[in-house]
Amino acid sequence: MNIPNHVAIIMDGNGRWAKERGLKRSEGHKEGAKALEKLAIHAKELGIKVLSVFAFSTDNFKRSKEEVDYLMNLFVTYFNEKLNKVIDNNVKIVFSGRKENLRKDVLEAMDNVTKRTKDNTDCILNICFNYDGQQEIVDASLRVSKDLKDGKLKEVDLNKEKFYQYLYQDLPPIDLLIRTGKEHRLSSFMLYQSTYAELYFVDTYFPDFLEKDLEDAIDYYNTIDRRFGNVKTD
Ligand code: FPP
Questions:
Q1: In which region does residue 86 sit, left (phi positive, over 0), alpha (psi from -120 to 50) or beta (all else)?
Q2: CA separation (Å) from 31 to 18, 74, 179, 189, 206?
Q3: 73 part of the active site
Q4: Is residue 16, in this structure, part of any structural domain at all?
Q5: Which residue minimizes the CA distance to atom 18 of ligand 1?
Q6: pLDDT in tens, 105-129
Q7: Residue-number span of the structural domain to which 204 is assigned
Q8: Is CB count within 10 Å lower at the N or C end of the chain?
Q9: Is residue 217 domain-resident?
Q10: Residues 6+ positions from 105 with CB-CB distance below 8 Å
Q11: What is the mean pLDDT of the segment spanning 177-205?
């Protein structure tokens, strides 16, 4: 089986998962966090080198204060203590997104988990947090422009590959992009990196998306003939 190098997941459907069970939305997020923990470990076991997940979009700040506060508290708990099993699996945790508008305790927890895992080598868990993919491209362009002005970059050296170095994290392109929870859209998630990603949409709400479902997505990936714009030669 061909294991994709970089898998990305838009973890959608936590709220609907809870609603269908007569529970509060927060219960859905709590279960979603547990699902992510299991998936990150399984991704590493399968040999996936990078797992990117959409944990909190910049637009998610439009939600009720109660929900945003709940999510931030959940993230602090996870980054500070609950990801220990993931960390013990030699997974390095990095973040993509803007730091502005984030609470001090959230920033500290992010910093803490980044430092604790910086030397881990088996797999990277890239957590997109206060993230917007269009904004990432704009921010990268500003950094490019600064380096050009400061003489650190020459125009002739800038190309599609080089541009990756100016994104929030310098990661390989996404091979397989999964979205759970019935919707079929990208919601401004890792637009630059998903240019040639295979897209896999699944109705399952994220808290129910478990190890076997990740394997099903990889099975689907293996059925595809990836030509990158070329033609088939046989
Ligand atoms: C989308 O479901 C999910 C989110 C906005 C948050 C994702 C967060 C987690 C899975 C928690 C764990 C993350 C970490 C990093 C510990 P939704 O609320 O949009 O669901 P809905 O579309 O059914 O309302």
A1: alpha
A2: 9, 11, 17, 22, 9
A3: no
A4: yes
A5: 15
A6: 999 999 999 999 999 999 999 999 9
A7: 6-132+173-221
A8: C
A9: yes
A10: 76
A11: 98
- Closest ligand 1 atom number to CA of residue 82: 16
Question: DSSP secondary-structure letter at 165?
Answer: G
Q: How far is the CA of 5 from the centre of ligand 1 (A)?
A: 24
- Catalytic position from the list 60, 73, 80, 112: 60
152 falls within a domain: no
- Number of domains the chain is built from: 1
Distance CA 36, CA 50 (A): 14
> Does residue 83's CB lie within 6 angstroms of at least one atom of ligand 1?
no
Rounded to whole angstroms, the Cα distance separating 77 from 95 reads 16
The predicted-structure confidence for 49-60, as pLDDT tens digits, reads as follows 999 999 999 999
50 lies in some domain: yes
234 pLDDT higher than 80 = no
Q: Where are the beta strands (DSSP E) in 11-139?
A: 50-57, 91-96, 123-131
The CATH number given to whatever domain includes residue 206 is 3.40.1180.10
CA–CA separation, 176 and 227 (whole Å) = 14
Q: What would the mean pLDDT of 162-189 be, rounded to a whole number?
A: 98
Does residue 78 line the site of ligand 1, with CB under 6 A?
Answer: yes
Q: How many CB atoms lie within 10 A of CB 134?
A: 11
Examine the residue annotation and report whether 60 is marked as an active-site residue of this protein. Answer: yes
